[in-house]
Amino acid sequence: MDTSLTPEQDGVRRALRDLLESRCGPHELRAALDTPSGHDPALWTALAERLGLPGLALPETYGGVGCSVTELALACEETGRALAPSPLLATTVLAAPLIAALGTPAQREELLPRLASGALTAALAVDGTVLATALALTGGNGGDWAGGGRAGGVQARRTTDGWRLYGQADQVLDGHSAGLLVVAARTGGYTRPRTLLFLVPGDAAGVARARRTTVDATRPQGRVHLRDVDARLLGEEGADVTGALAETGDRAAAVLACEAVGAAGRALERTVEHVGRREQFGRPIGSFQAVKHRLADVYVEVQAARSAAYYAAWAAAQGERAGGLALAQALRAQRTASAEAIQFHGGLGFTWEHEAHLYFKRAAGDELLLGPVHRLRAHAAGTARLFEASGTREVRV
User: Which residues form the Acyl-CoA dehydrogenase/oxidase N-terminal domain (predicted)?
Assistant: First the structure.
């Protein structure tokens, strides 16, 4: 593995950082959070038209840039650094890869160019409480997490002219605003239960959506309620849906690990700047040895997480899986860096006017959505069979 960035990768990162610094400052960020969608459409348009970010990891055949997941992960390190509110995670990291992997040629031809251009946004309609399970990050995804029977979620039934969906998915990333919903639904009843993915326009008859209040306002979520909605099956009936979700989950974990590292690194930068200015007893508090030691520990943890995230991004491009463990490391570093930022900023860090609490809420929200860290680690250890030789049956990480 070559850890140095290519000129193209470095160029994408620099261009993205310049754009976000000019278009996603503290005032622009808060203004975007107050909109119904929770996003800034002008920023999304700029990301699409100037950098091609929505289609960065999509094939050129469908209007994408043709880069690998590595470039997308490196780009997301910059969006994480700025806490940029955009449909990038839901559309580009989760929904588009599933359509590319499972969609029929006609579905890919219809949808991927619009997703790559940023003209269409999409959301994976899976209840946020089981998203990590659906993506096989904290355990196997072969159960009834999508619904079925009395388990809630979304159910599908076949009709003479297609499929109908009914049920509800809560805490769906961008579920309240996405133009296209990729809905995971359970079908087959009790005898032959299975999970399939369906395509539903966001404005289809019978779809009711509402934005939810979340811990992390920069990661907007919505409730999606389906009342006997007409839907198209994504791909063919015999497709390996759980396998595609697991593959997408590992790639998404690598991307999100880089994003979390970006947020953790920025929180640490702001904290170092603050302790260099804030004076106590006639000297900057950053000059005290205890402060130096604590921030040095945070720096080491962030750098270790960055190494793990970069490796996972590289491995995903090679067809290997290391995303879950890298995500666990990154989420831990993000939590540590943001918590220390709150502590060293004192009362100022808790106020709405300061951005320190935004990084803290991002860390808490990410772990609620994709963790917790100990389950990510335990599943990664179990998948790698680290404890089989010693006969250990229970994994506690």
Answer: 6-118
**pLDDT given for residue 190 in this prediction:** 65
pLDDT tens per residue, range 238-279:
899 999 999 999 999 999 999 999 999 999 999 999 999 988
Q: What is the largest CA-CA distance in the chain?
A: 80
Distance CA 383, CA 324 (A): 10
pTM for the predicted model, two decimal places: 0.92
Per-residue pLDDT averaged across 303-308, rounded? 96
Residue 3 is predicted with a pLDDT of 64
* Mean pLDDT calculated for residue range 133-145: 89
Query: Strand, coil or helix: what is 264?
Result: helix
Do you know the residue count of the chain?
397
How many other β-carbons are positioned within 10 Å of the β-carbon of residue 290? 8
Q: Rg for the chain (alpha carbons), in Å?
A: 21
Q: Dump the DSSP string for 9-60.
A: HHHHHHHHHHHHHHH--HHHHHHHHTSSSSS-HHHHHHHHHHH-GGGTTS-G
Residues 265/341, Cβ–Cβ less than 8 Å: no
Whole-angstrom CA distances from 211 to 55, 101, 176, 361 are: 26, 29, 5, 18
Domains of the chain by start residue, with CATH: 7-121 (1.10.540.10), 124-240 (2.40.110.10), 242-383 (1.20.140.10)
C-alpha distance across the termini of the chain, in Å:
27
What H or E segment, with its residue span, contains residue 200? strand 194-201
Rounded CA-CA distance 323/112 in Å is: 24
Report d(CA 241, CA 253) in Å as an integer. Answer: 18
As a whole number, mean pLDDT of residues 288-307 equals 96
Which of 178, 167, 182, 180 minimizes the C-alpha distance to 220? 178
Both tokens of residue 260?
Answer: 């979390």
DSSP 227: E
Enumerate residues 6+ apart whose C-beta is below 8 A from 390.
Answer: none
pLDDT attached to residue 149: 47
User: H helices then E strands: how many in the chain?
Assistant: 13, 9
